[in-house]
Amino acid sequence: QGFLAADQIAKTQGFSLKYLENLLSSLKAANLIVSKRGMHGGYALAKAPAEISLFDILVQLEDALDIVYCTEEGESCERNGVCSTQEIWTEIKNTVEGILSRTTLADLLARQQRLAGGVRC
Fold first, then answer.
1. Residue 119 — very low, low, confident or very high, per pLDDT cuts 50/70/90?
2. Separation of CA 23 from chain center
3. Cα dist. 110→3, 66, 104, 115, 117 in Å?
4. Exposed/middle/buried for residue 33 (C-beta within 10 Å: 0-12, 13-18, 19+)
5. Contact between 113 and 55 (Cβ < 8 Å)
6. CB distance 25 to 6 below 8 Å
7. Rounded distance, CA 57 to CA 112, Å?
8. How many percent of the chain have pLDDT more than 90?
9. Rounded CA separation 69/18 (Å)
10. Pick from 1, 76, 84, 108: most CB atoms within 10 A?
11. Confidence check: pLDDT of 79 > 80
């Protein structure tokens, strides 16, 4: 709903401004948000909330979404192909990524409004 100043976002979300600025920098580099300078400036989403998935965001903010090393390294794992737990961890990773990929910011907002009776987080 328009541009919000970083200090306003930090205050309402309970983040330090320095931490938030790092997040905003990463999100801007990924073209997920835009910024505008000036009195009515700040940060805004670059696309509609329904077009931005949680996966889109998290892959920009985290080094990897892997739960364990073997799903990150795959074939370089010395037990690749003979470890039954690697299959389970891979299934878990794929399930989590699927949920994140199909959940958008619009979905998250709708959940928050339902849980908080319309109070925004």
1. low
2. 10
3. 20, 27, 10, 9, 10
4. buried
5. no
6. no
7. 18
8. 61
9. 30
10. 108
11. no
CB 27 within 8 A of CB 42: no
Question: What are the backbone angles phi and psi of residue 32, rounded to the nearest 5°?
Answer: -90, -25
Does residue 32 contact residue 46 with C-beta atoms inside 8 Å?
yes
Query: What's the distance, CA 2 to chain centroid?
Result: 20
Q: Where do we find the tokens 């737990």?
A: 85
Q: Tokens 């299934």 sit at which residue?
A: 91
Question: 58, 36 in Cβ contact below 8 A?
Answer: no
Q: CA dihedral in degrees (7, 13, 19, 24; nearest 10)? A: -70
Q: How many helices (H) and strands (E) does the chain have?
A: 6, 2
